[in-house]
Write a structure and sequence with these properties.
By secondary structure, this protein is of the alpha+beta class. It is built from two helices and 15 strands. The N and C termini lie far apart (85 Å).
Length: 191
């Protein structure tokens, strides 16, 4: 009985120290921060950023990858969300990526989707990069919606991240980056 109790205490100590350390790291802040998103592919129409179905699309942003958490795997879901119209609140997955990085307190200016995996605005994608032609961004009969574009990246930097999900914060919700808004239109005006 004494050996069993000693064994349990040893196991608890072995797991408590690293998980406690991971808890402190995770409490300090995110491994990656997303800042200042903007849409280089948008045109200003009537004073509002506007993108058109069928156009190449990407979001540019600034990210900071902090050194404190060391090496991390990020599973990144990138969404468009309807903010008006008949489908307000509906999210559309438009890109997915898994990235491994070493935190070095770097400031980077990437785009998503990446240049080597371009996205033509129009339909949702699945996590295997397949275009889902049965899931258009604009429903039938709707020629224009306002949408928010944002990232929901989940961090995997330490053991605790596999037990308790940790997302990169900075947006309006706890599990997403700051949003960038644009009108999505079906038809481009005649020039």
């Amino acid at each position: 009985m004494v050996r069993l109790c000693v064994g349990i205490v040893v196991v608890e100590v072995l797991f408590a120290y690293p998980l406690g350390y991971d808890f402190v790291l995770n409490s300090i802040g995110p491994s990656t921060e997303y800042l200042e998103p903007w849409l280089p592919t948008a045109k200003t129409v009537d004073g509002k950023p506007t993108v058109y179905i069928g156009d190449d699309f990407y979001v540019q942003h600034t990210i900071v990858r902090h050194a404190l958490n060391g090496n991390c795997l990020l599973k990144i879901h990138r969404y468009a969300e309807d903010v008006d119209g008949p489908t307000s609140g509906k999210r559309h997955l438009i890109d997915y990526a898994e990235l491994q990085f070493v935190g070095r307190d770097e400031i980077l200016h990437p785009r998503w989707p990446a240049a080597d995996d371009p996205y033509v605005l129009g339909y949702e994608r699945d996590e295997k990069d397949n275009t889902l032609y049965d899931r258009p961004l604009l429903p039938d009969g709707v020629d224009e919606l306002t949408m928010d574009f944002y990232v929901s990246p989940r961090n995997f930097c330490n053991t605790l991240d596999y037990l308790i999900p940790r997302y990169t914060n900075g947006g309006t919700h706890w599990d997403e980056s700051p949003r960038v808004r644009a009108r999505v239109k079906r038809h481009r005006p005649n020039a």
